Amino acid sequence: MGPYVSSYSREGRHLLLGGRMGHLAAFDWLTKKLLCEINVAESVHAVQWLHQPTMFAVAQKQWTYLYDTQGVELHCLKALYRVTSMTFLPYHFLLVTASERGFIHWVDISTGTMICNLNTRSGRIPVLQQNPANGIVISGHSNGVIRMWSPNSSSNIAEVLAHRSSVTDVVIDRDGVNLITAGFDRAIKIWDIRMLRPSQIYSIGRTPMHLALSDTQMLALTFNNQ
Questions:
Q1: What pTM value is reported for the model?
Q2: Radius of gyration (C-alpha) of the chain in whole angstroms
Q3: Can you tell me where the transmembrane regions are (predicted)?
């Protein structure tokens, strides 16, 4: 059914899982109660809880769908086509997605309005994260570049060559000060986001595929299926 993508709700209580073969499951992680489990019968590429753990977004083979925790389809967002990754800005009610074609979209989920649609002209965008301190969106690209985006600007507001090969993941701490990147060059870099300079660089023996940072500044890594 896998590999799987996942999303935790903002308070960390609810877990959403999406398998590449179409399996979706939502849990109350505290009580281990299953909220819903469905199979959408097509590939799943990204999942994301929205402003409350009663609705979530799923990037499927063609389009992006919204579901409730009963597994009922609420809406199909056909403007969000072939999405590879997404994040949600809770203070703006904006679902932000990156696509196979190199577009970044900002959609107001309260009204369904497309707020902004930017063509990065960089091809497929494998990584998309947000700075929780200011809502700026950060994309990671196959040429090792990371870029920062705002719907108020028609071009990226910052750009830096982070790795010698493709960026695999990006994470930013809650204060918006430290930016951590990982790449296929088997390096993990910690950046001062205000200066866009690496403060620490670690070379490891394997390629880190995903990063997660806790509120206590503990960094977790995954390596393929480990």
A1: 0.93
A2: 17
A3: none
